[in-house]
């Protein structure tokens, strides 16, 4: 892991069949950023290639939104998402 900076959200759900994690954002996030997911059994970095809000593609999410992000590994409810420097 590179250097994780601030917490940007919490995983609220994971859709196994499509590999998408739902993240409740506590600060702004945009496509191109890299997240670090951390939890009891979760620990990996993931660049954001696409993000959705209300089933529509968006370039950026803002504080308070719940966004869907395609992930390469499983994330779990309660995992924390950090922005990677």
Explain this structure.
The chain is mainly beta and 85 residues long. The protein has one domain: Beta Barrel (Elongation Factor Tu (Ef-tu), domain 3). It has no helices and ten strands. An eight-stranded antiparallel beta sheet has the order 5-4-10-1-2-9-6-7, with no helix packed on it. A hairpin with a 4-residue loop joins strand 1 and strand 2. The mean pLDDT is 94.
Largest sheet: 8 strands, antiparallel
Which value, in Å, is the CA radius of gyration?
Answer: 11 Å
CATH fold title: Elongation Factor Tu (Ef-tu), domain 3
The number of helical elements comes to 0
Q: Give me the count of strands.
A: 10
Note poorly predicted spans.
Answer: none
Structural class: mainly beta
Ends distance:
10 Å
Strand content: over 45%
Series of secondary-structure elements, N-terminal to C-terminal? EEEEEEEEEE
CATH homologous superfamily label: Translation factors
Mean pLDDT score, rounded?
94
In the CATH scheme, the class would be Mainly Beta
Based on Cα principal axes, name the global outline: globular
Tell me the layout of helices and strands.
Elements: E1 4-15, E2 20-25, E3 29-30, E4 34-38, E5 43-47, E6 51-53, E7 56-58, E8 60-61, E9 66-70, E10 80-84
Antiparallel strand pairs: 1-2, 1-10, 2-9, 3-8, 4-5, 4-10, 6-7, 6-9
Which properties best describe this structure?
85 residues, mainly beta, Elongation Factor Tu (Ef-tu), domain 3, eight-stranded antiparallel beta sheet, two-stranded antiparallel sheet, 10 strands
């Amino acid at each position: 892991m590179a250097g994780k900076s601030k917490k940007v959200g919490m995983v609220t759900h994971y859709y196994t069949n499509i590999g998408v994690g739902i993240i409740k954002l506590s600060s702004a996030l945009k496509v191109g950023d890299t997240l670090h997911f951390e939890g009891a059994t979760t620990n990996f970095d993931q660049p954001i290639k696409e993000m959705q809000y209300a089933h529509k593609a968006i370039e950026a999410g803002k504080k308070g939104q719940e966004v869907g992000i395609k992930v390469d590994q499983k994330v779990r409810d309660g995992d924390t998402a950090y922005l990677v420097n």
